[in-house]
Amino acid sequence: MTNREIKRRIVSVKETVKITKAMYAISVAKMTKARGAIVSAEAYKHACEEMIRSVAVSASVKDPYFTERGARAGFLVIAGDKGLCGDYNTKVFERAMRAIEEKTEKYIFTVGSVTREAFHKAGIAVDIEFLNSAESPSPETAESLMSDVLYLFESDMLDEVYVVFTEVKGNASEVVLKKLLPIPVEEGEKTLIEPGAFELLPRAVGTYLSSFIYYALISSSLAENLARVKAMSQATDNGEKMIAALTAKFNRLRQEGITRDLQDARMSDN
Question: Which terminus of the chain is more solvent-facing, meaning fewer CB atoms within 10 Å of its CB: N or C?
Fold first, then answer.
């Protein structure tokens, strides 16, 4: 490699490092925002979980929201709209595939274009796609997802619904498979409710599902940006090491060239 080629390579790597630093800064800002949002989202989810437990029907009432009835499964898979975040999207897809392969009949919802493309490459049809929703999670998106899921369940087109998303604990993340419907309620937690209150049950179920889906969206966004922060930090470090190595090589070759020129000049003088 000549000095000119090394110089061009240094310029190229420096431009790449500028990009990775910018992406790092953006991801840190988004991660900070998600960390703030997840506190309230998790608190609301816990409150809704307590609420749904308190209105769970008695064992004598076979309500579809709480009763196992078949194996037609729906999967809500939440990942990212972009790459450059390590193996974040790959882990979500692989966990979803393990669960999906266990089911004969399945209905797939995806949040994030990367996961949608992964399913397409695997030859698996995606039934409903939510694009550009992973980067900026909102209660409106959660409500829309909940409406689609609940409609299919209440229309007896699905027997059970799962969500695949990523949870963050400290600076570590884990892909989670959570059953949304039928709602798992232990026998000891079931309580009797007044007959007139049954008309409020669909609304209570919808609120519970929305709260959990919104939490899953926020948690996944936090995990994605945490993964991108780590990936961009590593990419920046690698780029700077490469620049240092190329610069050292450039200086060495330049010095060798100067030494040769001096030697040639001395030989000419002699």
Answer: C
Q: Could you give the CA distance from residue 100 to residue 161 in angstroms, rounded to a whole number?
A: 11
CB of 224 closer than 8 Å to CB of 34: no
Residues 16-72 have pLDDT tens digits of 999 999 999 999 999 999 999 999 999 999 999 888 877 765 434 567 888 888 889
List the Cα angle 19/22/28 in 5-degree steps.
140
CATH level 2 (architecture), domain 3-22+228-269: Orthogonal Bundle (1.10)
The residues spanned by each domain of the chain are 3-22+228-269, 37-225
For the chain, the maximum distance between any two Cα atoms, rounded to a whole number of angstroms, is: 113
10 Å CB burial of residue 175 (0-12, 13-18, 19+) is buried
> What architecture (CATH level 2) is domain 37-225?
3-Layer(aba) Sandwich (3.40)
3-state secondary structure 119-166: HHHCCCCCCEEECCCCCCCCHHHHHHHHHHHHHHHHCCCCCEEEEEEE
| CA angle centred on 134, ends 133 and 135, rounded to 5° | 95
pTM (2 d.p.): 0.85
Please give the structure tokens belonging to residue 193: 């409710």
